[in-house]
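Retry 2 of 3 after timeout on previous attempt. Resubmitting structure tokens to design endpoint.
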């Protein structure tokens, strides 16, 4: 599987640095790295910067309804759910994926924490100059990664990205992202961040309400009011998307996947999966 994955990346000329940095240029399909297929949901496992170069892309990012057109940049954090609704035939994008491990290793201080305000405003319209600057930066990183023998690759990459975050970061925040959120929105955002971090082992709404110091009923009302979905549905969506990823990965048995998702045994996982999907995990993967 790993060999096939490597051949796939080479065929599409996807430039990458280990599993920390992926660059996907204009005109190249996002493929298995970030498959934007109409009617399909995916859960991100990296920080995504997707700059629309042409055409349009309509999607839901968590509970945000967004339409990307030329010059719009989408920023998605790990654990967010992208529900692709419509992709125009002429859609093209320049995409950069970064692992949390890599960004955590940068000397960013409060700059990276400020990036979390993107959670409220995940799409920003860039002007021509900032669009050009973004593309120039991606080109610079791409050029460096094409010279894998560079003796100071790791250090240079860290310096480049530190400078980019400090220089580019302020332009990712519009006045809208600085508005005061309602109490319901704040509780919902905090809840979704907790779900993204803990959905594998914490499945009860009571646990999340306790972390937020509010009642389960209050949390349910806030999430439903803000997103149109029940709070328990968000927990299940994350678990289900992770289950699909693990099942199609063909590296773990169903028993191992059940354990990773916090189920007491394979039978409990199978019952839960069939209730939500209509079929058993065994029919979803070749490996049982």
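Retry 2 succeeded. Sequence:
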């Amino acid at each position: 599987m790993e060999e096939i994955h490597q051949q796939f990346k080479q065929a599409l000329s996807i430039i990458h640095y280990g599993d920390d940095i992926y660059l996907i240029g204009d005109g190249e399909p996002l493929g298995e790295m970030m498959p934007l297929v109409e009617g399909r949901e995916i859960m991100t496992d990296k920080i995504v910067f997707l700059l629309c170069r042409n055409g349009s892309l309509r999607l839901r990012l968590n509970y945000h309804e967004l339409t990307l057109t030329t010059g719009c940049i989408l920023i998605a954090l790990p654990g967010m759910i992208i529900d692709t609704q419509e992709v125009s035939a002429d859609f093209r994008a320049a995409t950069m994926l970064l692992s949390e491990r890599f960004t955590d290793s940068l000397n960013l201080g409060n700059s990276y924490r400020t990036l979390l305000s993107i959670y409220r405003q995940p799409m920003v319209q860039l002007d021509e100059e900032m669009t050009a600057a973004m593309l120039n930066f991606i080109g610079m990183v791409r050029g460096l990664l094409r010279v894998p023998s560079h003796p100071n690759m790791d250090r240079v990459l860290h310096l480049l990205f530190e400078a980019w975050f400090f220089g580019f970061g302020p332009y990712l925040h519009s006045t809208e992202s600085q508005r005061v959120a309602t109490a319901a929105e704040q509780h919902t955002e905090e809840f979704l961040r907790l779900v993204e971090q803990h959905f594998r082992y914490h499945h009860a709404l009571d646990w999340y309400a306790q972390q937020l110091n509010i009642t389960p009923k209050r949390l349910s009302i806030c999430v439903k009011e803000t997103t149109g979905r029940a709070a328990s549905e968000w927990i299940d969506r994350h678990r289900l998307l992770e289950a699909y990823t693990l099942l199609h990965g063909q590296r773990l048995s169903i028993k191992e996947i059940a354990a990773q998702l916090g189920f007491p045994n394979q039978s409990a996982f199978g019952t839960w999966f069939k209730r939500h999907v209509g079929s058993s995990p065994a029919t979803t993967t070749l490996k049982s």
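Attempt log closed. The chain has a mean pLDDT of 84.
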